[in-house]
Amino acid sequence: MSGKPHWAGQRERGSFILMKFTAVLARLLGRRLISPLIYLIVGYFFLFGRQARQSIWQYQANLAAWSGRDALRPTHKSVFRHFMTFAETLLDKLDVWNGKLGLEQINLIDPHGLRSQLHRQERGQMLVGAHLGNLEVCRALAELGEHVRMNVLVHTKHAEQFNRLLSDAGATHLRLIQVSELDPAIMLQLSERLERGEWLAIAGDRVPLHGGRNLSVDFLGKSAAFPQGPWLLAGLLQCSVNLLNCLKIDGRYQVIIEPFAERIQWKRSERDSVIRAWTQRYAEQLARRCLDAPLQWFNFYPFWNEDDDKSA
Fold this sequence. Notes:
This protein has one domain (7-311). Helix content is 47%, strand content 17%. The protein has helices spanning 7-29, 31-48, 50-67, 76-97, 135-144, 159-168, 184-195, 229-237, 271-292, 308-311; strands at 106-109, 126-129, 150-154, 174-178, 199-203, 214-219, 222-227, 241-249, 252-261. Residues 1-14 and 307-312 have low confidence and may be disordered. Helix 1 (7-29) packs antiparallel against helix 2 (31-48), helix 3 (50-67) packs across helix 4 and helix 4 (76-97) runs parallel beside helix 5 (135-144).
């Protein structure tokens, strides 16, 4: 852990610049005309993004070994396709905020009827997603289709910049909230938002900036660090937790929402073990979802403990 910037600082800064650049080009030229340019950009990152390339290779190798599916073993072609899939999600994000991707083009998989709870005038709940698929579609539809106030908790100093970008694209009910630490002021704010019927959304697969609370659990057959934040929040706020994924299958998005925990509770002496159990359960659920869309896992940094700073 020398003087290198944390992954969050690098990635979020780069994501904002790339999204802003892509948004301008898409608005001026249209998606079809900028497609060749996307190939050039992806080709550049594929050739010179050594860490991202190695991280994707490791993920694909772990997924193949864990699942026993030889067809998922990494190749240079599959890694490039992984990069291309990520670029496509950036374009889809712009489409949904610009009204070019609507509810009628989305398949909602909601066997427990959780969508109906969005409209009830009662306490909000928590949605835990992952950097798998395209959660931006869910966020946009929550506002454009459901008219629900959604608070997205992030670990980036650039939250305000992203808020401006989303506002420019038409998002007015979506709010990004920086939560580097769970201090009393943040907890009070989140509790008040839940009481107003607003919902919270957070990623369950990103360790926070500045070495926040995380623990190592088994993911795809190897030890990996996952954040404790979502489960600590749910326990402290005493709110229900649901899992949310948005995967593009056969060219069409599937939004999958499912209940995960009605309440997360612990006694003082049991807290660590309870948090570990829920984190492990989440990692197992995420692993199964990765098999539904193997090329849509977008954590482009050394994710497993064995690869930490040594390969970075």
